[in-house]
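Exam prep: given the inputs below (a chain plus flavin-adenine dinucleotide), describe the expected output before reading on.
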Amino acid sequence: MDKSRIIVVGGGPAGMFAALQAATGRHEVLLLEKNAVLGRKLKITGGGRCNLTNIKDKKEHQRATVHNPKFLYKAFEALDPKSLIKHFEDRGCAFKLEKEGTVFPKSDDSSQIINILLKDLLDHGVDIWYNHKVERISVKDQKVQGVVLTDDREILADAVIITTGGASYPQTGSTGDGYIMAKDLGHGIKKIKPAITSFEIKERWVKTLAGISFTGTRVRILKMNKLQESGELLLTHYGISGPPVLKLSSYINEINLKENPVTVEIDFFPEKGEEELKTWFLDHSRGKKNLGSVLTEFWPKKFIEEILPFLGVPKERKMNELKKKERGKVIGALKGLQLTVVGLRPVKDAIVTAGGVDVKEVNPSTMESKKISGLYFAGEVLDLDAITGGYNLQIAFSTGFVAGNAASGKEEQG
Ligand SMILES: Cc1cc2nc3c(=O)[nH]c(=O)nc-3n(C[C@H](O)[C@H](O)[C@H](O)COP(=O)(O)OP(=O)(O)OC[C@H]3O[C@@H](n4cnc5c(N)ncnc54)[C@H](O)[C@@H]3O)c2cc1C
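Solution:
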């Protein structure tokens, strides 16, 4: 081996960016990807539109990071959202800002991001080996020697960057391989948990209404008062989903929900006060219409047919016969329907995997392992995760950027 070699294991956003940064010309850079294409998960991000990052400042990115935000401080210094956007703008990609600071390519097409990365990698002479799965990392005297492929072939390297992603959406190639590689080398792995995922709900009637959605709700986890998020709520065949649920899920994934269920409270009309609703009901109390048909002002018909029996209020009840207690139950449900969360969807169906390589054993300035010299980590394989909003891709790009620079010795040159 004449030139020194850097191997990057996994061609997702973290791996592609790491390989690109490492390709200074002084090293041979080899990117090993087990799929036949790069960035299979990146392709499906943001519903195929790629929410690349969030325009909010570094503080907000730290706040949105659920586990180990402090570890990311230096990585965000090295590559912040504006620098990431500029990187792609300089290569011809225009961006647009959407709600809550989210940033998408104007083309609404994640392929544009992947194509830019791929062209850059080839222009910088990065050797890409598709359909090559790394089985393990070879190490001697606590120093990286190279990688071993599934066919037992060993490829020597001076540095190896593990960017194999998490264990979510395994069909994209992220099957948790990096956790096993790191564990074999003595790294601690923080328990893998689903993050950004839907709630499984105990109440059966909810699950019969899959597909119904409600805009502008406020969802709150009871007894954890700060845990509340707003947005569209979606009923699914296992419970509830939608942006507020996905955000909240990342904060309750440490709880054994089967044994200790939590109660979620849904306010369907956060902008309306209880008094306002009471007045509305009183105004409509003289009519002979059924409660069920009057309530279509607030809820879809199918939902009303299920929720009224759940509340123990007959849907045929005439408005002029509605009892005070029944009115109270309906208003109570409009302002705070309580459901029991008995689980989260499994890791494989979650948008992001929480847990992973313990960041205490990784240098935040270089992403190098503190245990094995020449071994680096970047992206979701690390115990880092954030809520929805483009924050997770920023983590992948920023940590990949740092690892690639450090592995190539760039950071030593200042
Ligand atoms: C449906 C969905 C939508 C999302 N949308 C967004 C969004 O809009 N914005 C956002 O910020 N985040 C989003 N995310 C999260 C984001 O995609 C991930 O956090 C990010 O892709 C992690 O990047 P990574 O490079 O660490 O890992 P990955 O993207 O998972 O890439 C890992 C790569 O390593 C390869 N690999 C794995 N094991 C091996 C091995 N043994 N040998 C060789 N190669 C291997 C895999 O094939 C894969 O290509 C979304 C996730 C999903 C599932």
